[in-house]
Amino acid sequence: MNRERFEYIRDGIEGMELDALWDYALEASDFFDEQRQFFFMILEKLIREGNIRLIHMHTKVPMSGTAEQQIDAYMKVFPKGAEEMNGGLWFFSEECPGGSLWQAR
User: Fold this and answer.
1) Which helix (H) or strand (E) holds 65?
2) How far is residue 65's CA from residue 100's CA, in Å, rounded to a whole number?
3) From start to end of 9-103, where are the E strands?
4) Which of 5, 7, 79, 88 minimizes the C-alpha distance to 46?
5) The architecture CATH gives domain 3-102
6) What is the dihedral of CA 32, 38, 44, 48, to 10 degrees?
7) What is the pLDDT of residue 32?
8) Is residue 52 classed as helix, strand or coil in its secondary structure?
9) Per residue in 14-68, pLDDT tens?
10) Which of 9, 22, 34, 91 has the fewest CB atoms within 10 Å, measured from its CB?
11) Contacts of 13 (CB under 8 A, 6+ apart)
12) Is the CB of residue 70 less than 8 Å from the CB of residue 54?
């Protein structure tokens, strides 16, 4: 993905929760595995570039660990198919490890 496309997505979801990023993943492919891969690719880039921090869903405390460790925590519990994603509502369920905290640019 080129820089221009990444910035377009970042700007389009800035200040929103991770379900907004999932909407872009849905547009990227018709296949769940590719959508999942796209989602995690952008999420990792957002973390690495300091755009967002992942926070625990209930405590709102930033997640600890490296970007890879935080992504891994999501990957371990991420839905295996579209049905489990429930139209993006999974991001607001008990199974989801957390949300996003946007950093000022």
Assistant:
1) none
2) 15
3) 52-56, 98-102
4) 7
5) Orthogonal Bundle (1.10)
6) -170
7) 97
8) strand
9) 999 999 999 999 999 999 999 999 999 999 999 999 999 999 988 889 998 888 9
10) 34
11) 20, 21, 24
12) yes
